[in-house]
User: Fold these one by one.
Assistant:
Number 1:
Amino acid sequence: MRLRHIEVFNAVMLTGSVSAAARLINVTQPAVSRTLQHAEIQLGFALFQRVRGRLTPTAEAQTLYPHIERLFAQLDEVQRLASSLKTGRGNLDELRVLTVLALSYEVFPRAIRLFREKYPDVAVVHEALHSPQIVSSLVLQEADVGYVFSAISHPALSHEQIGERQVMCIVPKGLLGARQLKAGVLSFAQLADLPVIALDNRDPLGVTLGHVLRENSPGLKPVMTVQTYHVALALAHHGVGVAMVEGCTAASADRNKVDVLALEPAIPVTVKALRPTARPNSLVSRAFTRCMTQALQQIA
């Protein structure tokens, strides 16, 4: 298939008709029909069947379409990168910062306060995303710096460890006895007797926790699985179960509703700063990373 064939095929799949596809890509209806016919002749099979006035994709078209979607997603990334390169992102009056959600509640606000004391004229644009989204956005040079937990390495990004925390257990009030509370720690064996809220295995910490729990507490059965640390924390606040989160999220715990204990043996969680290697590490970017480091130290 040629690029023109792919563009028309995608438009028809999205809209369901020749006329709507023509409007979407700003060409005439006969041009769409001719392009589809030419594509089918080259491919040797039909892409659509007309059913009650609408074009219905054939089984072959449905097999092709996921690959076409990925192709358009890659094209969109190229366009976004070109736009970023055109606009430069070198403006010292603006800093674009990405963080995982867990760092946006306690650490990021503290860092902003410290940063604005020294750079009051720099506008900071912040977005909280999941780790893979942060990596993708930085690779596309859509931001200056990102802060994540235990990031997957990428050749287009530099990594700097700026802090380390450990996994904490957020336990609803009344679940533990006085002796356990006085000890201040929970073992894997003790967790097996408690309702546990697990983290999604697409999250870096969720992957680590899942592996460690399988090794050390195979009998543990989570009552539910969630995607974000603060959802786990909120569930613990409402008495659903024990949330296992990193220390930054644990700092937001309401001690009137929950008890906070360390997990033993300790599971370290590193905090990393990521930057695109294709762009210079600006003065304000370095300064903000120092502020993030100080903010992490404040909530240790």
Number 2:
Amino acid sequence: MINAIIQHGMPSKDEYYDPKQPSASNAQWVPWLQKQLTVHDIKADTPEAPLAFKPQYDLWVKEVERFEITPETLLVGHSCGGGFWVRYLSEHPEIFVDKVVLIAPWLNLDHEEDIAFFDFQIDPGIVARANKFVVFASDNDDPEVTNSVNFLREKIPEAKFVDFHDYGHFCTRDMGTDAFPELLKELS
């Protein structure tokens, strides 16, 4: 059975604790994508990483491993969630999936956050373990995300890179909508 795991990014601490804000797994385009996949008979899960504002890799792993990852699985990650999938797949060379789509992946290359979340080496064979491996980038994203995307272009050049104009960090405020048809198309 085809399934999808959609991993959110890293909210700010204020955003995380604000009762008026949705949880990270229910923010941005994530609910829209989950619904679109569901109506196409694809089970779509959105793990909620605890204390996501200060990510701890082992906690994120525990959350995503509650869901089955098979050769029919679609993996989606936004920002820190995209970087998470790069590390997870690099450290699990036995895993083969159908599709991986990373949206504005962030790898903390500049160490602007004091976290050990990204202390790992990218597996050069990571792209070969998916039928499709795509990275979305915007020309007006934050410099640290642009650096991460450029790093991935260098380390995994066989991935498909899709460049967008003026999508910012692919958040609702940047895109002006919760709908993300380009992402749904890549997953179809």
